[in-house]
Design goal:
535 residues; alpha/beta; Rossmann fold; 9-stranded mixed beta sheet; 16 helices; elongated
């Protein structure tokens, strides 16, 4: 969006259409495809307690903050003083705007005269106050004055048309199920229909918002998360919709001939792909120099195999190289991670880089009643704000479990969208996933979607041999890079951290040739992994 498409107060000016005004509700403009077309009739539908009144008034205060005028008209029995007392609890409320840029009125005295008289009074109020935005809160109260559905539809049409002619945007809230067919005849008059959802799943309350209908804008499809807190309404766009390109953004594939190699040019002329190292010389050598930049790596292993420690090595190697890094955790908080890092040479760098101005950003979510779109919104914001080059997620299991409990049908698409969002930002990511078995004897890596989506898969195992558990590191898969396909025993020692000890060999398993390498052309064979099950 260029500056030439911006008008006063930051509204967008799409070619050939009315200006698009910002709503002032975090992320709602993105869901709406830019904001609200000026002069539109907007209908907000939802059950009791879904946030209709708060959402509409939040937009009214945003209009006032932008230097324009708003009128809020209530059609419910409670006095405007009670409404204002409710709105004062939110961060968007400002006393100085009330009675000046925002006028609060009640239609209750006009309702007994019928819909036409009520509509005339509403239009007169808007004309008198020179309103840029008119909110009619509680259309169900207006509708109750006339049982004729056609009359209610005509009321919406007349009010919306007249206020649009005056240059005002109209927001009407109504108490109903957003998908209730009985409301459809009335809803046809609306330019924008916003549905608010509020349900109880088990003991968990879930809030959502969807754009059911939109004229003049291209909204993000589907149901998006919504939260109500001291700031007001906050919208968290569905991750899948954020990475799906709009039709006009899809460009045709260039001819394949442009990518054809010159037969006369030697293959070694291609520049080597950049690698992100762990800062562990022996382990990086097994990975042929490290993880290929811009790829996603899955580190899998059971309890006690050193997964989080390996992730800390990866994160600290990044910040020591001056690379902004985000560490997204669900189990261990900052204090626990610092304790773990301080047992090794990683502690000093962790403690320094986690401070303001450092290269390490820690996000921690308690794995209790999580909402995956809220997690994704905060994560992407941190990646964009810091310009992160690396990401650690410890662990992806919490995200998968939350998706399965909420809507298991989303799991594959959500994880694919997360990987796509990281690719778009050229972030090198490390995902940790815990195995249920303490000792890995037969491992099926094709079961989880993240295993298929990750370009690289690293396995940390505890194998039993001669009445002792041995920690073993191996590379299951690495795309875009050669890699060592052998089993390497490792130890966790202070102050080094993870230290490779050499090849893991057992008397009952023939020793592989030292230095044997593999590519991503096929699965590697491992003593404790079924070749048929490797991706």
């Amino acid at each position: 969006m260029g500056t030439s498409n911006l008008g006063k107060s930051g509204e967008q000016r799409p070619p050939g259409g009315p200006p698009i005004d910002q709503t002032g509700v975090p992320n709602l403009d993105s869901v709406l495809g830019g904001g609200l077309p000026r002069g539109a009739l907007v209908i907000v539908i939802g059950p009791p307690g879904s946030g209709k009144t708060t959402l509409a008034n939040q937009m009214a205060f945003a209009t006032a903050h932008a230097g324009r005028r708003a009128v809020v008209v209530t059609a419910i029995s409670e006095p405007t003083s009670k409404l204002l007392a409710h709105l004062r609890t939110f961060g968007f409320y400002e006393d100085d705007l009330v009675g000046n840029a925002i006028t609060f009125l009640s239609l209750e005295q006009f309702l007994p005269s019928g819909l036409q008289a009520t509509g005339d009074e509403l239009i007169a109020m808007a004309r008198q106050t020179h309103a840029d935005l008119v909110v009619l809160d509680g259309f169900r109260g207006v509708r109750g004055t006339d049982v004729d559905l056609q009359a209610a539809r005509q009321f919406l049409y007349d009010v919306g048309t007249m206020l649009s002619a005056l240059g005002a945007t109209t927001i009407i809230t109504s108490e109903a199920d957003p998908r209730d067919p009985q409301f459809f005849p009335e809803a046809t008059t609306g330019d924008i229909i916003i549905g608010l959802h509020y349900s109880l799943e088990g003991v968990l309350q879930r809030r959502g918002i969807e754009v059911i209908k939109a004229r003049g804008v291209e909204p993000l499809a589907g149901l998006h998360a919504l939260a109500l807190n001291a700031l007001g309404v906050i919208v968290f766009p569905r991750l899948e919709s954020r990475v799906t390109p709009r039709p006009e953004a899809i460009e045709p594939e260039p001819p394949l001939v442009e990518f054809a190699r010159d037969p006369a040019a030697p293959a070694e002329d291609d520049p080597p792909m950049e690698k992100a190292t762990f800062g562990l010389a022996e382990l990086d050598a097994v990975l042929d120099g490290g993880i290929t930049r811009g790829t996603s790596t899955l580190v899998i292993g059971s309890l006690g195999t050193g997964k989080t420690l390996l992730a800390l090595h990866f994160a600290i190697a990044g910040v020591r190289a001056g690379e902004p890094t985000v560490f997204l955790g669900f189990r261990e908080n900052q204090r626990r991670l610092l304790q773990k890092a301080s047992a090794f040479d990683l502690g000093s760098a962790f403690a320094t880089e986690i401070l303001p101005g450092g290269h390490l950003t820690l996000q921690r979510w308690a794995p209790v009643e999580m909402k995956v779109d809220i997690v994704a919104d905060a994560l992407l914001a941190a990646l964009d704000r810091t310009g992160a080059r690396r990401l650690v997620v410890d662990s992806i299991l919490e995200i998968e479990s939350t998706l399965i409990r909420g809507d298991p049908r989303r799991t594959n698409d959500y994880l694919a969208a997360l990987i796509e969002a990281l690719h778009q930002r050229d972030v090198t990511a490390l995902f940790i996933k815990e195995l249920r078995a303490t000792v890995a004897t037969e491992l099926d890596l094709s079961a989880g979607p993240i295993s298929v989506l990750a370009e690289n898969v690293l396995l940390l195992q505890q194998l039993e041999y001669q009445a002792k558990l041995h920690r073993v590191f191996s590379v299951i898969k690495m795309r875009f890079s050669a890699h060592d396909s052998l089993l390497h025993e490792f130890a966790i020692r202070a102050p080094q951290g993870i230290e490779l000890l050499g090849l893991f060999q057992r008397d009952d398993v023939p020793a592989a040739r030292h230095g044997e390498h593999s590519t991503d052309e096929g699965p590697s064979s491992h003593a404790a992994v079924s070749p048929e099950s490797a991706p």
